[in-house]
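Retro notes, item 3 of 5
We never archived the inputs for the alpha-D-glucopyranose complex last cycle. Fixing that now. Sequence and ligand:
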Amino acid sequence: MKNKLLIGSALFYSVFSLNAQLPVYLDKKLSIDLRVQDALSKMTLEEKVKLCYAQSKFSSHGVPRLGIPELWMSDGPHGVRAEINWNDWGYAGWTNDSITAFPALTCLAATWNPELSGDYGNAIGEEARFRKKDVLLGPGLNIYRTPLNGRNFEYMGEDPYLASILCVPYIQELQKNGVAACVKHFALNNQELWRDNVDVNLSDRALYEIYLPAFKAAVHEGQAWSMMGAYNRVRGQHACHSDLLLNKILKEDWKFDGVVITDWGGCHDTYESAVNGLDIEMGSYTNGLTTESEFTYDDYYLANPYLEMLKKGEVSEETVNDKATRILRTHYRTSMNLDKPYGSVATKEHYDVAEEIGNEGIVLLKNSPVSKKKTPLLPLDASKYNNILVVGDNAVRFLNEGGGSSELKVKDMISPLDGLRSTYGEKIKFAQGYAAGKPMYGREEVIENDVVEKLRKEAVEMAKESDLIIMVGGLNKNHFQDCEGGDRLSFGLPFGQNELIEELLKVNPNMVLVLLSGNAVDMPWINKIPAIVQGWYLGTMGGKSLANVISGKVNPSGKLPFSFPAKLEDCGAHAFGEISYPGIDRRQEYKEDILVGYRWHDTKKIPALFPFGFGMSYTTFDYGKASASASSFSDNENLTVKISVKNSGKVSGKEVVQLYIGDETGKVMRPVKELKGFDKISLEPGEEREVSFTIKAQDLQYYDESISNWNVASGKFKAYIGSSSKDIRSTVSFTYKNNLTVNK
Ligand code: GLC
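Structure as it came back at the time:
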């Protein structure tokens, strides 16, 4: 009915258009929906079908006859990828496509700072706009389920609430540049091994409570204009044309009005794509990274085969009208948005945003005095040292290269070694220490033993003559490390780093270890190293952010967005054998169910080595006693919980005050507690502030499979407030009375 009304009014306007020679669909004084309907009414069936599939690697058709432009897309979530060839995965070799590499999204998540997320979205949106991209293929919102997943660095950690809060500003600010966010990979793409067809099976509770909330926030609060279907299957059907994910959840329940774009090569069936909510097919018959195919774009599932089905009446024309309506709406929001700004690239403002996100995302994991000394090793006071040895391939490696589709060609890059040299000058010496080979898809370069020995020996000799070692290691963007298209093969550090660390410690115990990675790693040397910094992939300004924190110019305030298990089998995804990870014969069951990350560690009483929400500071924060505005509340009322926090140290600092809630009603199995609020506050030495949280019914809810809907049990709950999921400083109990749902 709505469409008929719109078509009617479009016809009316076309006769009496305010600007007679301008057709309705081009008259920007009219609403997008009116213009969409007018454009649709002027298009042939062939033109509508052409909108639904790629014309090149990273663009889809427009309507040349009507002056409707093509839609240009680009990776990725951390920066705008260099120009790719029209019809193969090679880079086009342009000289005007170098950009800013922003820190990876795990680093953004580690800032726990929604305002910074908005700055991120605006900056990357300006760069995408300047590069004339209409769709930016990001952010990635898949949940961190296993430390082996090669793409965790592109995502926002293990907790759906943290990812939900942080993705919204990024999307909102990005889209203000007339660039569509393409939130990915919808859904349950939580590993790279067998990503193209592993069949994920899980409970409705795990689906709705853990894996969907961030995507729902992206649609509801973020107002995302596009979503990318994941490669994997969900309960037997490919996510890119899943009736459950796309028709029922995304478009019917969530009222998503944008477009669903496949992952590159994620489409496998014409009929399912026609009727199950897929709108634009990209990259078919490729592996999304390196392979090509003899098929032409017109052979795509939603190309000629779809046109044939429509002409034969095997699928309703309503399906192509709905797809075309959504695609045209996306055009009006982006390529045909006449009010969009012009964007900019590699500006000081963008570099400042990148540096600030690094400053606030870096996590101080350990900071203790060296043997006889009293003061902790960090921050590093230059006056105390004459020579500092920086060791590690990651101190100089271009970590924006490799990793898969999120790789970037940067205009500038401050490496950790550059950053430390600019702070400590000639005191800094460098030894590579280990070699990691070149990032290559599908395999790893073998480093000959004599090279390994030579590099290690050099570093150890230099360490003997140094006051202090800053080891910059971790993972990298090689295949089987933090890289798309494959998972890590082990939980430990690669490239002989553990042996190197042990050799260095033998000759010099004064070590700061900086781990650059997007994943937790095994830490056999944890008790021998005085200071450990989780540095993420920090992008263009990485070396500056790192030097800022190590020198104390910036007081670290990052908090882990995912747990660091002491050993791999302590992680829920690895506690139930192969069926749970990586799956058996491409079929997988998420046996840990809703107990992902700290939910698993808390509930199974298996302490993490470093817990979710953990991060140290150069100052200390004292918490008062939590109080609640009432002992109970019900239905649509809410409860306020307050607590005072004081900077009891000698330097200013930022603290992320975290609120977790535990359901003690016993109605259904629930984690001990779940993150339901956080507030990042900045305090001068001695300054005290009251932090308050408002608790509503939705903070208490669980997905009730008996009614296939959300529900809240009546009874006792507990609010936990702390500095991490483990470091709880105060709790307060309350009861909730649910008079609303059928299920008492
Ligand atoms: C890749 C990735 C996806 C990316 C797309 C285009 O295979 O899975 O994240 O945006 O294809 O490069």
